[in-house]
């Protein structure tokens, strides 16, 4: 993976393909953040702040993608299609491995945290040596395998992944804010906070 600068952590190259994150990077980076967050049980004190910050922004941006889709995609609906395809692929993936999904209402509690960690570990253990398009074709818009690839590549950075992820999330939030109209973002920030 090559992260390109100056200040453009969002543009990345993974296994020979390059993608601009504003097209579908929120979901891609959310999956990678979730996997890394649940795998990294013992981050360094320096990394811990970046880790928490990344998780908060990741969850917020996913909220916007799912609950405020018009705000997050230049092409109305593409974010929702990617999200739905990714959820469907995740359900199939977990079902084949006997992992019971955790409902949103029940996401709290030690047992559910353990299930989430187990699910993230199973995703991380996927064989990513074959490109997702070779496995699922180009009809599926799921980002599950791509997110796994990104998580593995970020882990190779060896202690620098959380700082990079936090910068990516700031860039993704800034991009969303600058492309949704001056009146929309503050309104959604207030809604999300309540």
Topology:
Blueprint lengths: L1 E2 L8 E3 L2 E3 L1 H19 L5 H23 L1 H4 L5 H19 L13 H15 L7 H5 L7 H12 L5 H19 L4 H10 L1
Antiparallel strand pairs: 1-2, 2-3
Helix pairs in contact: 1-2, 1-5, 1-7, 1-8, 2-8
Helicity level: 55-70%
Order of strands side by side in the largest beta sheet? 1-2-3
- Rg over CA atoms: 16 Å
Low-confidence parts lasting 5 or more residues at pLDDT below 50?
A: 1-22
What is the mean predicted local confidence, pLDDT?
76
Helical region count? 9
Distance between the termini: 38 Å
Give me the strand/helix succession. Answer: EEEHHHHHHHHH
Give the strand content: under 5%
Query: What structural class should be given to the helix and strand makeup?
Result: mainly alpha
Main beta sheet strand tally, sense and closure: 3 strands, antiparallel
Count of extended strands = 3
Broad shape: globular
